[in-house]
Amino acid sequence: MTPRIGIIGGGQLARMLFQAAVDIDIEVSFLVRETDEGIRGLAANVVVGDLGFETITQFASGVDVLTFEHELTPIETLHKLADAGVCLRPSAKTMEVAANKLAQRELFSRLKLPIPRFAKLNRDTAFVDPCIAKAITGGYDGRGVRWINEAQDLEPLVNDNVEWLIEDLLDVEDELAVLTVSSIDGDVTTYPPVRTIQRDGICVEVQWPPATTADLDERAQAMASAIARELGAVGVLAVEFFVVGGKLYVNEIAPRVHNSGHLTIEAASTSQFENHLRAVAGLPLGPTNFITPATMVNLIGNINRLADYQVAPNTRLHLYGKTGRKGRKVGHVTATAANVAAASQLAHRVRERIIASD
Amino acid sequence: MTPRIGIIGGGQLARMLFQAAVDIDIEVSFLVRETDEGIRGLAANVVVGDLGFETITQFASGVDVLTFEHELTPIETLHKLADAGVCLRPSAKTMEVAANKLAQRELFSRLKLPIPRFAKLNRDTAFVDPCIAKAITGGYDGRGVRWINEAQDLEPLVNDNVEWLIEDLLDVEDELAVLTVSSIDGDVTTYPPVRTIQRDGICVEVQWPPATTADLDERAQAMASAIARELGAVGVLAVEFFVVGGKLYVNEIAPRVHNSGHLTIEAASTSQFENHLRAVAGLPLGPTNFITPATMVNLIGNINRLADYQVAPNTRLHLYGKTGRKGRKVGHVTATAANVAAASQLAHRVRERIIASD
User: Fold this and answer.
1) Cα A240 to the chain's mean position, in Å?
2) ipTM
3) Which residue among A306, A317, A336 places its CB closest to the CB of B2?
4) CA separation for the pair B31, B34 (Å, rounded)
């Protein structure tokens, strides 16, 4: 029997994992919070509850493997679950490092990977040049990030009730992401690097192929694999890179399916969602080659009426079933074409029709 | 608000309609029979019940539009539902003709479309040459079809408790199918013709592009459109053709998403499932162009253990959540490649791994 998979989380990543589970006939259940939109009312097996030890233990009793859509489960709870014999994929240890931006950087340093200079922020941290401050835990989609122009900008952060780190602000030319997929036996495979484009700290577009050399691609994949291997990852783990002066710097990681991989649904042999499920279920991983140039554009904000959802040729729409609001990802569109420029144009044309202007 | 769609049926077509509904965020419910496998335990909104007037009326009260995965609902029930104000898409009239192979042929004749010579079977029907007998209602996947070699083969059918028709057995070179999609305003669009390959009356493989001329393609699309228009179809309606001596003969129709259109999931701009939902929901239809050569191969029989589900590059697996048995469609695999021959080879390679030899 294929193991039953329990997924903690109920947003769009859960939604797309669900669709992939249907294709390969894997039984999935979801533990979602009261406020989650995306999978409630859609999948048959949805439990609404908090992220406490009792709730998760109860949820886990009905499945064989637990996996995650987000990094919000308290780490101590994950360790307690593991101690209680719950099968976590990825492990509590992997989640612990991935949920902590300082621990991530210590890992990258240990692997001697190129990263921006960083320091944990405290009263004594020297401020040098413009830098960037990041909340050590809990930040996402531009939240928990501050641009620091002068020493006094650090004051409120030093006194904040969450911990911060600062790192050098690099002159970033480009950003890449590599999705790794790790089997339960420790085999690590990677998707080719994609180019990610952010605005205001939110990913707005992802493209394959990126305008990189084969050599840069290889190095990015090798670094990403090293990280996944060192972490003992299982399933998809995304590694984000900066390109500065033609050189790679590791930015950060996410131990789960990732916005940078949505275009694998249409453009790769196996989607990141199917491969994550295959990995955590202990099935053979699917091939990770891209089969066509493609661009994914996030739909962010308020959606026009469905009646206006004209689609363009060679594009696919993915709506998340979420209430639209300013800055919120409510869907994405992927376009395939002979090249990235053409795909990007198609995808943006659809976005402009669907997203109501503010 | 987008209308809520109620789908009568709970097999693989319902399953793939469900996946498409997730992408475009349409609310769908299913009325399934006790024995249906495919959507039970998967979707949140599933009602188990019979196909009687009371059951369907109750089910319909929770949705805005009713549509169908199969032609099993009794026609008199559909007319009663329509009279009671239930919104049926397609209509009872369309379903009535489509569910009756004799009425189909009378329609084709009225439209002066080329078809094999046919006659309703009764005591007086003259037997001429080898012919083929078809149950007028209820047949599918090779059931309800008999090859008639001599006059006495007709005896049991004349005395059968279902009605039969006979038609000339043509020397078929090839078979094509055209999917039509009709909007609620009567606009009819078509997908390009695909080649279908049957074995023992069951579709085993579908390919695009077929080895046809542009002229033949155009004529097939024109005939299919004429049928959909004449029937007042809404949503997907499939039209199957024989190619004999380089000429087209209309074979039969199905007023729903169809096995010949599964490869549109990967290979066309809009899948037949999304377009059916768009049509019955009154949304703009999606583009129907193919974007890559592709082959779909049905998985028929018993499935090997999931652990063996190796997938090949450029292929996608779709399992239906059904118990495998001899002759039963339990999934399909679609391969995309530079040409049909390469795609076909890839798809069969996956099929051979997945389907246990008898």
Assistant:
1) 9
2) 0.93
3) A306
4) 10
